[in-house]
Amino acid sequence: MPGIKNKLKERRKKKNKLKKFTERLPCRFCAALKKPKPVEGAPVPTEPADTRLDPAVGIDYKNLDLLQRMVTGQGKLVSRKRSSGCPRHQKAIKYAVKRARFLALLSYVG
């Protein structure tokens, strides 16, 4: 019996070594909404350089640059793991893509 337990322990160790993506990245949309703490003596930015690609602008069906980056070449939505979004923002992306497709702003395929 002791030999079987040791084999099971070794299998578990191997399994844990093979795990990928153990830590999730923070949602980039949630992180963009948080305001950074001001530093004394540093100039305060009035507006982001490129508001079209800034996730703080918001997830909307009219923001086509953001939506096109969230859709693959085949027309599939990018997974949460690759887009680094939380479930709430992934759902908002899904509905924004559906609205944009319905209004013919985005194509259904490719």
Describe the overall structure.
This protein has 110 residues and is an all-alpha fold. It has a domain at 24-36 and 50-110: Irregular (30s Ribosomal Protein S18). It is 45% helix and 0% strand. It is built from five helices and no strands. It has helices at 2-18, 28-33, 64-69, 80-83, 87-102. The longest helix is centred in the N-terminal third of the chain and has 17 residues, at 2-18. It is flat, with a radius of gyration of 21 Å. The mean pLDDT is 77.
Which descriptors would you attach to this protein?
30s Ribosomal Protein S18; mainly alpha; 110 residues
CATH topology of the domain at 24-36 and 50-110: 30s Ribosomal Protein S18
Overall form:
flat
CA(first)-CA(last) distance: 57 Å
Q: Percent range for helical residues?
A: 40-55%
Any guess at the CATH architecture of the domain at 24-36 and 50-110? Irregular
Q: Give the strand tally.
A: 0
The CATH superfamily of the domain at 24-36 and 50-110 is identified as: Ribosomal protein S18
Mean pLDDT: 77
User: Which class do the helix and strand fractions yield?
Assistant: mainly alpha
Order of helices and strands: HHHHH
Short synopsis of the structure:
By secondary structure, this protein is mainly α. Helix content is 45%, strand content 0%.
How would the blueprint of this fold be written?
Blueprint: H1 2-18, H2 28-33, H3 64-69, H4 80-83, H5 87-102
